[in-house]
Amino acid sequence: MMISRRGLVRLSAATLAGTAAVSGRAQAAGIPEAPLGALAATQPPLVPSAGPPYRPVVTLNGWTLPFRMNGDWKEFHLVAEPVRREIAPGMVAHLWGYNGQSPGPTIECVEGDKVRIFVSNHLPEHTTVHWHGLQLPNGMDGVGGLTQPHIEPGKTFVYEFVMRRSGTFMYHPHADEMVQLAMGMMGSFIVHPRDPDLYRVDRDFVFLIASYDVDPGSYVPRVTTMTEFNLWTWNTRVFPGIDPLVVRRGDRVRMRMGNLSMTNHPIHKHGEPFEVTCTDGGWIPPSARRPEVTTDVPVGAVRVFEYVAEDPGDWAIHCHKSHHTMNAMGHNLRTFIGLQKRDLVPARKLVPDMMPMGTAGMAEMGKMEMPMPENTLPMMTGFGQFGPMEMGGMFSVVKVREGLSADDYSDPGPYRNPEGTVAHEYKGNPGEPPRRAEKTARASAAEFNVVKPGAKSSSHRH
Ligand SMILES: [Cu+2]
């Protein structure tokens, strides 16, 4: 899951001397290892081997950065560098990230911890790291030019601060931000309560919401895009590349999500309602929580919700902006609903490879295999046990099952519905006379097309 970083030896003696100016203790022990995340699959939670105990989070399609204790300091090492990230099987993006991945590894620590974070810059331009939501000395806030000099390529800086309050935070550059965020530089930062039983949950998931604009057939995002992104990602993955969130029935579940994209995302979970319990501003008092099934995650904000998983099944979780559950192909398609394919023949002569899809909707695209440019993903895809799911982007499945072991996050496969509990075709009762509803439901596409505004359409109430 993690491999040792050969690149570490590239850190020059001059770089090490630079850190010595910040802290003598750091010099005594050298810079900690900067592990490299090799996989895009969800890695098991990292149970702390030193320091105060806590129940670790699970980073969706990601991993947690190991630390070492140096005296009473908890030390981490982030390396900002170019990375290759598999967005979903069949597509790789060339991004910038930390320690081999975008997003970077999750940092976990405990309220009251003294934390030292080494940041090495292996990018071609300068960077900084801002610790979003954390209360720290002003000079540790990571705003290039304002609170510190930039970290030039090849240099290592040290950040040192004490965790003043628990919660869910983020880290990202505050230098050439438009480019560096568009290239994937971000990570989650979790501060656990000192008392491990405070706000205790059984499963604790975290992911970051972002968006990218990678032209079909290319690998590097357009960094100047402001609104027209074509990849809507959770931890820099899109469906069907986003792992399921596996939950044991009866577990109290927490989902933490931070939004570093350019628009808001109303995240909707099917099944039991939840309560928003925490933001990047802190924990919400229980008296101020309210039940929801969708929570909007604003730009530059964290929302955390919790619920008890009572109902077994495969429950969808997704952004409710329907364009955000689609992938790159197809955002510029024309709408053909209501047209007959034969009406498009003249247009086909002008544009020979035009595919007149979608005259009856676009669901047919969910199962078709059309020729694709290199390195791109179909607009909507994925298969469930009952057929094509016609999804992409910000979509996954919460898989609630009986009797999983506490540390089992492996995909249990499709849910086996109890007999008689799946929606099915109505085949009528013997001797039942045909009803008007049958006729209107069968109105042909041709009839549908001739309905004029103001014309009396057949009633759908029956
Ligand atoms: Cu969205």
Low-confidence stretches: 6-28, 450-462
Mean pLDDT: 85
Principal-axis shape: globular
CATH architecture tag of the largest domain = Sandwich
Q: What are the bound molecules?
A: copper (II) ion
Q: How far apart lie the N and C ends?
A: 58 Å
**Tally of DSSP helical segments:** 6
Q: β content, as a range?
A: 25-35%
Largest sheet data: 8 strands, mixed
CATH class of the largest domain: Mainly Beta
Which bin fits the share of residues in helices? under 10%
CATH topology of the largest domain: Immunoglobulin-like
What is the subunit arrangement here? single chain
How many structural domains?
2
Which class best fits the helix and strand makeup? mainly beta
Fourth CATH level, the homologous superfamily of the largest domain: Cupredoxins -  blue copper proteins
Rounded to the nearest angstrom, the radius of gyration is: 25 Å
The number of E-state strands comes to 26
